């Protein structure tokens, strides 16, 4: 075999070997694991009427959804801010406005009622 053919064969072998590199494959980060996957057996929505009852029930639903992993932390924080605004209106005696804020938040985030 001539030196040129030997060099060409070695070069071809190196090129093919590069295709079979053993670099580690990129691994996607695992999603956060929820602390539970079902609503607790004794879970009951808070009772109450008016804006305070509506706010308490929405907070309970959100606490359950974040614990189950049904909502991410960013969305949860947004909804908590909206609930806080409704609670402030409720505390100030603006019941109708507070209930409207809860309903708007639920509609915006896909919750019924």
Explained architecture:
The chain is rod-shaped, with a radius of gyration of 29 Å. It has 113 residues and is mostly helical. The chain has four helices and no strands. It has a domain at 48-113.
Question: Helices, strands, pairings?
Answer:
Elements: H1 3-19, H2 50-68, H3 73-91, H4 95-109
Radius of gyration: 29 Å
Q: Helicity, in percent?
A: 55-70%
How many strands appear in the DSSP assignment? 0
The biggest beta sheet, please?
none
- Approximate strand percentage: under 5%
> What ranges have pLDDT less than 50 throughout 5 or more consecutive residues?
none
Number of helices in the DSSP assignment: 4
Look at the structure and give the mean pLDDT.
82
What's the order of the H and E elements?
HHHH
Shape: rod-shaped
Structural class: mainly alpha
N- and C-termini, Cα separation: 83 Å
Record keyword descriptors for this entry.
single chain; 113 residues; mainly alpha; 4 helices; 0% strand
In short, what is this structure?
This protein is mainly alpha-helical and 113 residues long. The protein has helices at residues 3-19, 50-68, 73-91, 95-109.
């Amino acid at each position: 075999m001539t030196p040129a053919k030997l060099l060409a064969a070695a070069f071809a072998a190196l090129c093919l070997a590069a295709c079979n590199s053993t670099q580690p494959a990129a691994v996607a980060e695992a999603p956060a694991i929820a602390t539970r996957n079902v609503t607790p057996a004794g879970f009951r929505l808070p009772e109450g009427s008016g804006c305070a009852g509506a706010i308490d029930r929405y907070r309970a639903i959100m606490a359950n959804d974040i614990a189950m992993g049904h909502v991410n932390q960013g969305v949860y924080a947004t909804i908590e801010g909206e609930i806080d605004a409704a609670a402030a209106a409720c505390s100030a005696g603006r019941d109708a406005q507070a209930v409207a804020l809860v309903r708007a938040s639920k509609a915006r985030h896909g919750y019924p009622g």
